[in-house]
Amino acid sequence: MSTIVVHGVLNAVQDDQIIAVQRTTQGVPAAWPVDSAMVTITGPDGIAMTGVEIADSALTSAYRVRLSTFGEQLVPGGTYQLHVHLRTGEDVTGTTTIPDAKPSLPPVAIVPFNEATDTLRMSWPAVRGASSYEVRVQSTAGVYALFADTSAVLPGSMRSFNGTAVFANGLNHTVVVSAVDANYYQYYRTNSDPFTGATVQGNLLGAEGVFGSLVVVTVRALHVATTVH
Fold first, then answer.
1. b/e map 42-53, b = 16+ CB within 10 Å
2. What percent of the chain lies above the pLDDT cut of 70?
3. Exposure of 221 by Cβ count < 10 A (0-12 exposed, 13-18 middle, 19+ buried)?
4. Which stretch of DSSP H or E encloses residue 182?
5. Which residues in the chain belong to E strands, given as ranges?
6. Residues 182, 131: contact at Cβ < 8 Å?
């Protein structure tokens, strides 16, 4: 028995919105791409924006909806509909309402951060329509993410679940806080099943996966070093 898996997260700071479409078979921890699908996102103004299939080396069928092609931008607080029609005749639908906030601009300067002694303290206003806030620490060493309310305290000595440093010494890090909708929060706070390859049941009709949205509300840029001059 096979299952369609669709992943799409609308990001208000990006022109390209990516929808991944795959098919997985129960008992096999792998997914196969689903090509030649018709993928559309319809906004609150009723304009249906059709995705273009793009190549992906990770064996994922991805469809890009470029907003500027349709003269569109994502509207904070707006509700968007996803429709995926497969050549087999199967249909997948989902709905998301974007948290009602103006996206934050990227930071101008990179701030020095001592992993041994410094602590990053962040807070932000509550956003209407947000179920939670995702805090992501990103560098070339990897990504660490957690969900928070309207504040976060991140010691430089933080370790991930597998014991690696969240703030890797000698690297630049970007800390991104995003207001996320209920679909995103409910889906990504739960782990996938590594044995069956099946993802957690999301908010879609006709498939597993998620169609959610987020708005970046604050960004920090850090250069991590044990000794800061």
1. ebeeeeebebeb
2. 90
3. middle
4. helix 182-188
5. 2-11, 16-25, 31-33, 38-42, 48-50, 52-54, 61-66, 79-85, 91-97, 111-114, 119-123, 132-139, 142-148, 151-155, 172-180, 208-225
6. yes
Q: How far apart are CA 29 and CA 197, in angstroms?
A: 4
pTM, 2 dp = 0.89
Phi, psi of 37 (to 5 degrees): -85, 160
R_g (Cα) of the chain, nearest Å: 19
Amino acid symbol at 47:
I
Which domains are seen in the chain, by residue range?
2-100+202-211 (2.60.40.10)
Give 211-220 pLDDT, tens digit per residue: 999 999 999 9
Please state the rounded mean pLDDT for residues 52-60.
Answer: 70
Contacts of 211 (CB under 8 A, 6+ apart): 6, 8, 9, 19, 82, 94, 95, 96, 183, 202, 203, 204
Q: Quote the DSSP letter at residue 74.
A: P
Lowest average pLDDT, out of 19-23, 52-56, 89-93, goes to 52-56
Pair of tokens at residue 109: 């300067």
| 215/10 Cα distance (integer angstroms) | 8
Q: Please list, in sequence order, all residues whose beta carbon lies within 8 angstroms of the beta carbon of residue 183, skipping any fewer than 6 positions away.
A: 94, 96, 202, 203, 210, 211, 212, 213
